[in-house]
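Worked example 2:
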Amino acid sequence: MHTKNLLAFSAGVDSTALFFYLLEKNIDFDIAIVNYHTRETSDAEVEYAKNLAKKYNKKIYIKECFLEKFSEKNARNCRYAFFEEIIKKYKYDTLILAHQLNDRFEWLLMQFSKGAGLKELLAMPEFENRNFYKIWRPFYNKSRNEILEYLNKNKIKYFIDESNFNQKYKRNFIRANFSNEFIALFQDGVKRSFEYLENDKKLLFNEEWIQKEKLFYFTKENPQIDIKKVDIIAKKLGTLFTKAQRDEIIKTNFSCVIQGKTAIDSNGEKIFIAPYIKTKMDKDFKEKMRKEKIPPKIRGYIYKMEK
């Protein structure tokens, strides 16, 4: 990879194996580690990271994160805020994460237990675009057992996070009772299933649309796919729809204003989404919009944008 890469490192099984995998592949990278001070080994893990960085001539960035109340969500927020700060400041192109097959399967089961559709069931693809950087997960199709075999075969030191065995956390409960054993038994089938599901996801949820400032539009397909796209775009505009609002959008055939601020409208061929602006428009502009087949609820935003 001819990019500037930052590896999210923890000294655990996955990120330690990924560190040495990247070395073997001659992929240039630096490392970033967060110390939450929640375990007896936390400081030792940071020291191990420092030693690896020094030995292999890598830059290392360290974050001391003291959380008033530790939770996976709070830890993740702290971690990603730190990574993105480093990426911006030092102009990294790619954040390399050590998510692997077991992580993906755990996520699927967690979402499945809540009641979720295909898009929500799948997460952690190999490549992912963020606002100002990319994410790469080289181990996304490697199982935890394959990674452990690699570490043990090469006699590589790593740390075990004891909190991963605490089954009061839903993810750990699923890991201990379902996902790890299932993948150990059916690893190849799980890999193939994820491949098929990812291909289906690309076909069903092709997130291609045109954007001009805060105006978005795309070609209509069917209500189930179209509402997913509208939902994603609305989030980009800062609006989160409730189920009732999604139902309203479909019921009105994608022609309504939600929360008084987000306009959705259709000309029969395309669906448009933009901030809702109610304003007086001159006759020539209205005629121009009619000829260009811009639906009424979108015209106020375009009028403002052009003035």
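The domain at 5-201 is CATH 3.40.50.620 (Rossmann fold). Residues 170-204 form the longest helix (35 residues).
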